[in-house]
Amino acid sequence: MIAQKIIQNKLPFIVLVTFLVGLHIFWEHYNGGVTTHHLLAREDLPGISNWWGLLSIPLLSWILISLSKWLHNKNPTTYGLSQITKGFIGGLVFGILISLLWEFRLENILQYAIWSPIILAFFIRIYLPGNLLGFILGLTYTFGGILPIAIGLVLITVSFLVWTIFRKGIPFVFQKINQKN
């Protein structure tokens, strides 16, 4: 299983991610310069260079793989290897979809698609580290090494709040109300 190999030996995966980010930056450097992404896509706001991806993406990969391993070891039935793999692939596909929508300037679809993880959070746990890693890697080619992390953290945080409040909090409140009656 893919997740088991990555969790047990994360160094080859992190080296692969570092190589791919480095290859992308090398290509950008010799084809017009390394891209700088500006906040909110506005030139008057501060920019973040893709060079930061050489540090941020491998570091984040190490952190999220370690967190996935910890969660799996803590509770393998709830956070199984197949769930890690499915979450990673789902996040990767969603990140690539968002990147393609941005690249092809389909903002009318993008504005709705970006909310889909929050809607899915009502039904499944989107906030897991494997999902976040796949999502960030899917966005890295288009948005560099920092903006995907910021976007991913916002979506993961909101998804966690939705899951916690609606899947755990509301039933808890109703249970307490029924106990008083």
Automatic annotation (TrEMBL):
Going by the entry's taxonomy, the superkingdom of the source organism is recorded as Bacteria
Residues spanning the membrane: 12-30, 50-72, 84-103, 109-128, 135-166
Provide this UniProt record's keywords sorted from A to Z: Membrane, Transmembrane, Transmembrane helix
Q: Which organism encodes this protein?
A: Aquimarina amphilecti
Protein name (record): Uncharacterized protein
